[in-house]
Amino acid sequence: MADVFDLWGLDVKPIDDNINHYSFNLVGQDGAGKTSFMTALMNTMGKTFTCGFEDRFKSVPNIKVMQFNKWKEFLEFKKGLKKGLKEGRALPFDCCVIDTIGEAAKMGKEHIMNLNGWTELKGDQYNIVGQSITDEIRELRKLGFIVNFVSHDKSRELTTATGDKYNQTVPDAMNQIKHLVMGDCDFILYLEVVNETDEDGDKKEFRRLWIHGHPMLKLKTALYGMPNYIDYTNVGEGVSKFLAAFNEGVKFTQKMQDDGMDVSNPNSDNNVIVEEKQIITGLNEDTLPDFEEEFEKEPAQEVKEPVKEEVDIEILREQVKKTRDAMLKTMEASAVKDIMRSELGFVQVSKVSDANKLKKFINKHN
Question: What is the DSSP letter of 89?
Answer without folding.
Answer: P
